[in-house]
C-alpha cells in the first residue's frame, strides 16, 4: 500500500467515525421513554397556564415569566415530539390529575391571587422535571434523549431567576451556601487539616528538607548526650568535695600527746 492509498483510507475512517458512533447509539431505556413523556406532559400544562397569565396576570414580572415559559414550553414539546417519533414512543394521554386541578384553580382567579398561583404552578412543574432531566442527561446512552434532557435542563435553569424575581416564591430557588464547618485554633485561626497532613507526612512548603532534618536530629542527639554526661558527672564532684571537707578538720588538729 503506497502513501496515497494509506492517506485515503485514513480520511475515510475519520469521516465515517461519526456515522459509526451514531449507528452504535444505544436504544432508549424505559427511563428515557418515561422522561420524553414527562417533558410532553409538562409542556401541555405550562402552555395553557402561560396563556392565562398573559391575560389575567397583574404584575409585569409574571407577564414576562409567562411569555418566556410559554415559548420555551412550545419549543420543548416540539423537541419531545421529534424524539418520541424517532423512538416510537406514544405521547397520547391526559394531563395528570394534579395539573388538571391546578389549571382549573388558575382559571377561577385573576390579579395578584392569580400571580401567586401561577408562580407556584410553574415552580412545581420545574422542580419536578429538573432532577429527572439532570439524571437522564447524565445516564442516558441515547443521543436524542440526551439532547432533549440537556435542553430541558437549560430551559428550567433560565426560568428559575425569573421565578425568584417575581417575589412570589416562598422558598429560595438556589440553596444558600452551607455554613463553614472548618475547625479553628484558639484565637480564631482556621485549622488547615490538609496542610498539617502534608507537613506530617513530608509534603507541603512547611516540611523541611532531608539535610535539615538530619541536622536537627544530630543536634538533638548531641544535646541529649551532653546533658546526660553532665548529670552523671555532678554526683562524682559532689562526693569529692565532701571527702575533702571531712579531711580538712582532721588535718588541722594538733597531734595527740603521749
TrEMBL record:
Region entry Disordered, spans: 235-258
Domain DUF4142 intervals: 31-160
Lineage: superkingdom: Bacteria
Signal peptide: 1-23
One Pfam family in the UniProt entry: DUF4142
InterPro entries associated with the record: DUF4142
Protein name listed in UniProt: DUF4142 domain-containing protein
Organism: Paractinoplanes globisporus
Amino acid at each position: 500500500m503506497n502513501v496515497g492509498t494509506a492517506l485515503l483510507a485514513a480520511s475515510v475512517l475519520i469521516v465515517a467515525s461519526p456515522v459509526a458512533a451514531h449507528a452504535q447509539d444505544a436504544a432508549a431505556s424505559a427511563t428515557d421513554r418515561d422522561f420524553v413523556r414527562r417533558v410532553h406532559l409538562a409542556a401541555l400544562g405550562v402552555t395553557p397556564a402561560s396563556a392565562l397569565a398573559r391575560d389575567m396576570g397583574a404584575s409585569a414580572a409574571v407577564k414576562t415569566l409567562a411569555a418566556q415559559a410559554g415559548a420555551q414550553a412550545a419549543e420543548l414539546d416540539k423537541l419531545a415530539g421529534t424524539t418520541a417519533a424517532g423512538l416510537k414512543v406514544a405521547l397520547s394521554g391526559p394531563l395528570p390529575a394534579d395539573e388538571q386541578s391546578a389549571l382549573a384553580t388558575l382559571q377561577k382567579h385573576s390579579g395578584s391571587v392569580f400571580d401567586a398561583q401561577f408562580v407556584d404552578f410553574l415552580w412545581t412543574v420545574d422542580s419536578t422535571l429538573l432532577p429527572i432531566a439532570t439524571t437522564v442527561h447524565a445516564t442516558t446512552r441515547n443521543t436524542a434523549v440526551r439532547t432533549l434532557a440537556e435542553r430541558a435542563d437549560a430551559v428550567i435553569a433560565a426560568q428559575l431567576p425569573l421565578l425568584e424575581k417575581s417575589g412570589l416564591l416562598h422558598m429560595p430557588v438556589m440553596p444558600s451556601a452551607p455554613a463553614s464547618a472548618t475547625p479553628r485554633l484558639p484565637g480564631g485561626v482556621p485549622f488547615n487539616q490538609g496542610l498539617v497532613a502534608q507537613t506530617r507526612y513530608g509534603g507541603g512548603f512547611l516540611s523541611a528538607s532531608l539535610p535539615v532534618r538530619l541536622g536537627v536530629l544530630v543536634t538533638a542527639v548531641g544535646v541529649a548526650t551532653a546533658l546526660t554526661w553532665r548529670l552523671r558527672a555532678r554526683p562524682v564532684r559532689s562526693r569529692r568535695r565532701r571527702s575533702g571537707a571531712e579531711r580538712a578538720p582532721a588535718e588541722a588538729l594538733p597531734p595527740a600527746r603521749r
